Amino acid sequence: MTDSLPTTSAGAPTQGAAPTRPAGTAPGTPGAAVVVDHVSHTYGRGDTAHHAIHDLNFEVMPKECVSIVGPSGAGKTTLLRTLAGLLQPSEGAVWVNGKKNTGVPDGMAMVFQDYSRSLLPWLSVERNVAFPIAGSSLSKPERKALVDESLEAVGLKGFEKRYPWQLSGGMQQRVAIARALAYRPKLMLMDEPFASVDAQTREGLEDLVLSIRDRYDMTILFVTHDIDESVYLANRVLVLSRPPATLVEDIRVELAEPRDQITTREDPAFIHLRGHVARLIHSGGEPV
Amino acid sequence: MTVAPEKNTRKSERAERAARPGRPGRGRGVLVALGYFFIPLAVLVVLWQIATTVAPSPFFPPPVDIAENLVKLLFGGDAVFTEVFYNDFLATVGRMLAGYAIGAAWGIVVGTAMGLSQGSRETVTPIVEFLRSIPATATLPLFIILLGGGDDMRIIFIAYGVSWFVLINTASGVGSIHRTMLDLGKVFKISPARRLFSIVLPAASPKIFAGLRIASTAALLLAIVSEFILASNGIGFQLIQAQGRFQLLNMWSWMLALAILGLLINFVLDAVENRVLSWHKLSRQKI
Ligand SMILES: Nc1ncnc2c1ncn2[C@@H]1O[C@H](COP(=O)(O)OP(=O)(O)O)[C@@H](O)[C@H]1O
Ligand SMILES: [Mg+2]
User: Rounded distance, CA B256 to CA B247, Å?
Assistant: First the structure.
């Protein structure tokens, strides 16, 4: 199932492909949206040090929807925070759109796992969605148009004046997605965004992600611990091992589009893939 | 994506209705609260009045006399207000408000800085803990020696005593803001000033308000205490004067004035809090 990209765990390090690359230019395939280059991270030092992720190498091309799965505590959030520029990795570097991350990269939005903490309870839905663009150079009507369109895209038209705490968990997470959309990101990071909503709401939100991916031409990186979800949503699944997390396998997902909650999940290819991912995770990174 | 919203629309409508002020449900609530407040008070006053009429005592004048005397102290004369009103009552209120404002501002600024940086929190906290465990009233002699017996000394003394409550609460409120909320500001590249005023301070505002509330009580207390020594006017000064001249009625009247002042401050803070923190109350009700 290992694909032919040069950037799998077993494959050559991305830097190996271009050893004479000029300083300051990104390693890996030219035009890649994200390049993760020999990234390791250790929390703390001395006795309490925790080696969370180890020598991760992969790249994501524009408009790909890549899911990252791994056992709980593997270091998925750690990886995503380094991608977001919220955490400087102890070793290696992340490149977004050809630029090395020194802080939060431009044109990136994030949907957090904890929707109840990521929405501002003193702002209405509409002002929460407008929050990231409120300081931008856009005119007021332009901002309003962006907010309206984003709320419409997530099916929350008519809820503009509500407050986050007046909405269900699934609706709150849709507000968070609308907020990310209104920002018009090229890269969207999602950290277990549906972990705390009920199963039915979750399916709706998964299909929402698929529809906005098609509509807005974004690159999406999606962290989940749900194996089915990782396969259902993605063009590629990156499987992480138990900590210190290494990349176990980089799996290409070629399922019929558009995906459908019922038929896709019945597809023998889907069933085969999910079984494969599950086996990888359960073995904790040993070959299967 | 279709099931949950409907169920919740109804719930949120209810919350919204509760959020709108002036609705019958809420009006009744206010009346009930006022009833709980005034009825026991009225009973106490009536009992006191009866007791002091049956068995008069120079130490406990009847409440009606106390109130009448207070009105006489503050109102009347040539204008609406007496000189005492301006010289003593307003002077105390002014000192209190000035000290409160300075102390609250200082407390919010330092508390925010402490809350935002773990480093500064760790270095400053022992100092804060040490200084604030000295009863503020005990520092008055030092303030007098350093700053003299004027109004500025009193205001700074009040500000000093008040600032601890605001500082501690602000630091704890800001320090306990969830990481996700702070990440939100960084991820969307919100400017530092907006991060401070639109994320950090609103998120910490319930705690800050709790501090401001305790501080308001302390401000009145410290204002009065500061007027016990080296003062030539103010409610505290009048209390000491009345004590020296054995004017018990005046003493009681000034105490009544302070009680009314305290209630008034509470009322104003309630009103501000209801406006500014309605989201906080309502979002908690839902859970
Ligand atoms: N700030 C931190 N300091 C120390 N250890 C941390 C910190 N954040 C996460 N960890 C540890 O790193 C490991 C990976 O965490 P995380 O990336 O959140 O895993 P995941 O998202 O895959 O569940 C966990 O064992 C966690 O305890
Ligand atoms: Mg996580």
Answer: 15
